[in-house]
Automatic annotation (TrEMBL):
The lineage of its organism: Bacteria, Bacillati, Actinomycetota, Actinomycetes, Kitasatosporales. Its EC number is 2.5.1.19. Residues 17-429 form the Enolpyruvate transferase domain. Pfam families: EPSP_synthase (PF00275). It catalyses: 3-phosphoshikimate + phosphoenolpyruvate = 5-O-(1-carboxyvinyl)-3-phosphoshikimate + phosphate. Pathway: Metabolic intermediate biosynthesis; chorismate biosynthesis; chorismate from D-erythrose 4-phosphate and phosphoenolpyruvate: step 6/7. This is 3-phosphoshikimate 1-carboxyvinyltransferase. It comes from Actinacidiphila epipremni. It is an enzyme of class 2 (transferase). Phosphoenolpyruvate binds at residues 31, 104, 132, 180, 357, 398, 423. The active site is at 326 (proton acceptor).
Length: 466
């Protein structure tokens, strides 16, 4: 690694695994559930509770934005521990300024809310937020009766001139670049005078489980929603206008953020339990049970949560990840440590995430020695012996957690700006080292079951033995 990296606090030395991990990891709440719950609570006709919310950059930005439009959010503590946010809805108003950071949920879910406010709401954010697509929300809102000044860009920054209500009705949206266009409009749909009939008109829709999460949470808040998967019309969602109930909702652990911890079990041939893993959920991270089983582990879902075990082998995978795109960086890291090649497809839209994730993964995995090629809609990963080095993260939380997974097996991986994990998982470095701290070091000569961390696929000394 370069001298600059060695001496800069911006670089984090990813710890190698001392042996097969054996830990229980309490994963903080889901970003996607927390931010939907906040929006729905703000639209409700009565106060509600969001218990065990995720407190991270994306969710604090959401809470601050709603407060700026007049919603009261009181932060209290649950009798049995953890946070409980009391949401007291009020008439939404401007002028207000919203900082979206680089949160897709904030930049997409809130313009429809602002269209219902009384007064102008200005949206600003990180430089990357200005490059991420928003046209689906802007064009649709205009079609539904809103006035928006985006200076002709079809993206941020912009001002929504809320008129206190919105006509609503039928609208066509091309959501092939982000499912969040659909979720954004559905979440505010019950508050539109005519409700909403949204038709997706573009190519294949990504992240469909996230749309199911939106529909499920709307229904639990009392909304009437017809969705394609319930025998409705293909690519059409209908939301009936009506008041929403105040809910008392407890946020599930973020299953997508469980990915690096489950990967640690797979990569080290160890065992990780995630307490509170729901038996039924709309979270896309639930697919990790199947994906990581196909990659060589096995899992057990019970009252204790999910226990995932590595078996000592890591297999490559051919998988269409369109539904679960946000899992890609960690899956790609595991694939780089596998015994054979992987092909990840269906994820062209990842080029428009926090960074161009396909380009970033190809470049950074490549710089550690892996043979990676970008395809039109994914990655082909052919594992090679890896070496340590700098892993750039491009302000992308999931690039940083993916790098940590590689570091378990590859000594000398330096992760740029690990603090970027605060977008959705602020305690990541502490959780990671605690997981490893619980892991008994392996004595010289002990077997860890032939995991990548132990059998020399990672160049240099195997984890914990150098
Ligand atoms: O609605 C949501 O909470 C999300 C939807 C997905 O967005 P895209 O459809 O843009 O991939 C996902 O990647 C993102 O992390 C969260
Ligand atoms: C794509 C992601 O986030 P966002 O909500 O900003 O789109 C993500 O968390 O992987």
């Amino acid at each position: 690694m370069s001298d600059s990296a060695a001496h800069s606090p911006l670089w984090w030395a990813a710890p190698t695994a001392p042996g097969a991990v054996d830990a229980s990891v309490t994963v903080p709440g889901s970003k996607s559930v927390t931010n939907r719950a906040l929006v729905l609570a703000a639209h409700s006709a009565e106060p509600g509770w969001v218990r065990r919310p995720l407190r991270s950059r994306d969710t604090v930005l959401m809470a601050e934005a709603l407060r700026a439009m007049g919603v009261q959010i009181d932060e209290t503590v649950n009798p049995d521990g953890g946070e409980a946010w009391r949401i007291i809805p009020a008439g939404l108003y401007g002028p207000a300024t919203v900082d979206v950071g680089n949160a897709g949920t904030v930049m997409r879910f809130l313009p429809p809310v602002a269209a219902l406010a009384d007064g102008p709401v200005r949206f600003e954010g990180d430089a990357r937020a200005y490059e991420r697509p928003l046209h689906g929300v802007i064009d649709a809102l205009r079609g539904l009766g809103a006035r928006i000044d985006d200076e002709g860009r079809g993206s941020l920054p912009l001002t929504v001139y809320g008129a206190g209500s919105l006509t609503g009705g039928a609208v066509d949206v091309d959501a092939s670049s982000s499912s969040q266009f659909v979720s954004a409009l559905l979440l505010s749909g019950p508050r539109f005078n005519k409700g909403l009939e949204l038709r997706h008109t573009g190519d294949a829709l990504p992240s469909v489980p996230h749309i199911r999460m939106t529909v499920d949470m709307l229904r639990k808040a009392g909304a009437r929603v017809d969705a394609p998967e319930d025998g409705g019309t293909r690519n059409v969602w209908r939301v009936t206008p009506g008041a929403l109930l105040g809910r008392d909702l407890t946020v599930e652990p973020d299953l997508s953020n469980a990915a690096p911890f489950l990967a640690a079990a797979l990569v080290t041939g160890g065992r990780v339990t995630v307490p509170g893993w729901p038996r039924r959920t709309t979270q896309p991270g639930d697919a990790l049970r199947e994906i990581f089983t196909r990659m060589g582990g096995r899992c057990e879902l019970g009252d204790q949560g999910l226990t995932f075990r590595g078996t000592g082998r890591i297999r490559g995978i051919t998988a269409d990840l369109r539904d679960v795109g946000e899992l890609t960086p960690v899956i790609a890291a595991v694939a780089a440590l596998a015994e054979d090649a992987s092909h990840l497809s269906g994820i062209a839209h990842l080029r428009l995430h926090e960074t161009d994730r396909l380009a970033a993964l190809a470049k950074e995995l490549g710089s550690l020695g892996c043979d990676v090629t970008e395809t039109a809609d994914g990655l082909r990963i052919r594992p090679r012996p890896l070496r340590g080095g700098e892993f750039h993260t491009y302000d992308d939380h999931r690039l940083a957690t993916a790098a940590a997974v590689l570091g378990l097996a590859v000594p000398g991986v330096w992760v740029e700006n690990v603090a970027t994990t605060a977008k959705t998982l602020p305690d990541f470095p502490a959780l990671w080292t605690a997981m490893l701290g619980d892991t008994p070091a392996v004595a010289e000569g002990d077997a860890t079951g032939g995991s990548a961390a132990a059998d020399g696929r990672a160049a240099g000394p195997a984890a914990g033995r150098g």
